Amino acid sequence: MLIKVTAPTGNPVTLQEAKAHLNVTDDIDDPLITALIGTATEHLESLLGRKLLTQRWELRLARFPRGPIEVSLPPCLEIVSIVYLDANEDEQTLDLSSVRISGLGSMEGALVEARLSSPWPSTADHPEAVKVRFDAGFGAAADVPAALKTALLQHLASLYQTREASYVGPANVEAVPHGYLDLIAPFQVWRF
After folding, report:
1. CB 134 within 8 A of CB 71
2. Rg, C-alpha atoms of the chain
3. Which burial class, exposed, middle or buried, applies to 44 when counting CB atoms under 10 A from its CB (0-12, 13-18, 19+)?
4. Which residue(s) pair with 6 in the sheet?
5. Any idea what DSSP says for residue 88?
6. Per-residue pLDDT of the chain (192 residues; tens, 9 = 90+)
7. Rounded Cα distance, 126 and 121, in Å
8. Domain ranges, ordered by start, for the chain
9. Would you say 144 and 53 are in contact if contact means Cβ atoms under 8 Å apart?
10. How many other β-carbons are positioned within 10 Å of the β-carbon of residue 132?
């Protein structure tokens, strides 16, 4: 189970960038545009399977796995802590020097492996016995790839221009603008 601990500060695009893209010069629709930035960001992150801006998450597991722990919100910027309930149900903090961390900052995600000299400890029988805290996202807004910002702005413009659900005739109605999926495809996380 994944739990958001700390939300990102800010958005991948600023209100000023959004207004420039929309060709809006007055301030009347600022609250609406700000809300639509959030909506477009959430939609994009859900399609991607990754987070855009740095935010802290916690992965909760019933026990340590037999192999590595897969941190599933790439890019993972840092493993902050690993806390677990020992066999006596006392909370313990695992020394991060006793694990091998690979894939930080990669598009594939990070892996946390027990070193041969110190295997995973035993845990209590509890559905959330292991808690891995980590920071995920590309970093600051300036670090978000341009293609993803473009896709976000395209979706924002579509939402701004078409504020109500509509259907006209037998044509296909798309939930996102033409070209949006092409822009985000290289960044999507695929799980099999």
Report:
1. yes
2. 20
3. buried
4. 56
5. T
6. 999 999 999 999 999 999 999 999 999 999 999 999 999 999 999 999 999 999 999 999 999 999 999 998 899 999 999 999 999 999 999 999 999 999 999 988 899 999 877 789 999 999 999 999 999 999 999 999 999 999 999 999 999 988 766 555 555 555 677 787 888 887 878 664
7. 14
8. 2-52+141-162+174-187, 56-136
9. yes
10. 23
Question: Which residues pair with residue 50 across a beta bridge?
Answer: none
Give the Cα separation of 29 and 82 in Å (integer). Answer: 44
Sole residue written with tokens 């639509």: 36
Which two tokens mark 3?
Answer: 């739990």
Cα torsion angle, 174, 177, 179, 182, sign: negative
Prediction pTM value = 0.85
**CATH: 3.30.43.10, 3.40.50.2000, 1.10.3230.30, 3.30.379.10. Which one for 2-52+141-162+174-187?**
1.10.3230.30
Whether residue 75 has a cis bond before it, omega within 30° of 0 = yes
Q: How many CA atoms lie within 13 A of 25 on its CB side?
A: 0
